[in-house]
Design brief:
By secondary structure, this protein is an alpha/beta fold. It is built from three helices and seven strands.
């Protein structure tokens, strides 16, 4: 898996202060997408052990408390990304059990494959649905268009 960008401090992509990873790879290619540079799964940087270690270290940093990890893209549930994303969310939940995980995907919850669905056991919130340009609404919190749904998987 590759990633386009990593923000160790982010206050836009989910509630509170967070770490945010934008993965590469998306087959949806939504019209009006603000992150077209992430569509190519080979773009960006290799997601390696050093990046995983950095995310865990940042989540554990007591100088700037983070509420959790946000995964966006591209699409974290792009089939080629699923093994690496699953390993990451398992590790985050084991190493940082007090942190929440939010994940944005163009795939709908009810349409996820068995492999994609395994990730749901480790994330707290799924924001699903393709970005629909004609339904775009800048007043929406944590989503770009009104068709997208915020699923709170853990209460």
């Amino acid at each position: 898996m590759n990633y386009q960008q990593y923000f160790p401090l982010d206050v836009v992509n989910g509630p509170g202060t967070r770490c945010t990873l934008f993965v590469s790879g998306c087959e949806h290619q939504c019209r009006g997408c603000y992150n077209q540079s992430t569509w190519n799964p080979c773009s960006g940087h290799e997601f390696d052990r050093d990046m995983v270690a950095q995310i865990i270290s940042d989540l554990k940093d007591t100088r700037v408390k983070r509420r959790g990890l946000s995964l966006s893209g591209g699409d974290p549930l792009f089939p080629a990304n699923v093994p690496a994303v699953l390993a990451l969310v398992k590790l985050v939940k084991r190493e940082c059990p007090d942190k929440d995980i939010w994940l944005w995907s163009g795939y709908l919850l009810e349409e996820l494959s068995a492999e994609q669905s395994k990730i749901l056991d480790y994330i707290d919130v799924l924001v699903d649905g393709k970005f629909e340009h004609q339904l775009a609404d800048p007043s929406l919190q944590f989503r770009g268009s009104s068709n997208q749904v915020i699923h709170h998987l853990k209460q």
